[in-house]
Amino acid sequence: MEPSSSLYQRYSEGVIRLSDCKNCGEVVDKYVEFETVLVVIDLIIHNISAYRHLIYNMKIQNQFRLAIIFLFCDAYDKWISGRAGIYNIYDLEWIFYKSLLQSTLEMCTYVGVVVLCDVMVHGISSKRIGLVSRGTVIGYYGNVAVVFSIIFRLSNEFSYRSVTQLFIFISHIQIQRTLFPNLSLAMNTAVVAIGVLLSMQSGALCRHLLEY
After folding, report:
1. Membrane-spanning residues where (predicted)?
2. In this structure, are strands 15-18 and 8-12 parallel, antiparallel, or unpaired?
3. Type and span of the H or E element at 11
4. For residue 145, what are the domain limits?
5. pTM over 0.85
6. 49 and 28 in contact (C-beta within 8 Å)?
7. 25, 34, 117, 188: least CB-packed within 10 angstroms?
């Protein structure tokens, strides 16, 4: 997949024409004309074109802040599960710190696996590694579902946790396909699966070590 030289041609103020891909003849990025809300809706239904727009053509301010939000959402979700039967404020605070550390280690492990995959495919490039790292973190946007779990008290529901984890897994696959379009779906899915498994293992190890 070759990048296009332009997304659109501007003829006058407020008048543009979307560029067509030289290879397939389709519009390069139709989401240039879409409102952000419509882009978000297509992200929720895992439209890969929306992921391409988000990663390559959409300027996201404060991506580090987004990563922090995703981390805290996941840590809070873990904290809710781990605080059952504990009422001491200091114990609750310690559980949250452990949850935050576990979430951080899990995210870093997964991003590390994807970056390693990128280095193996494209070689070492700081610009490319930065793009892959930022794009991979975006795949965790499903963590904000913890807000709904708080509102509707779904934190301990198996169905909620299963659907949330499946949603995040699929979003990781779509991100992976966007970042590595030349790899097959099976290969991209395998990379995501390996990353998720190693992430879970690192989180379990962190939790085990912090018990002592």
Report:
1. 137-155, 179-200
2. antiparallel
3. strand 8-12
4. 63-211
5. yes
6. no
7. 25
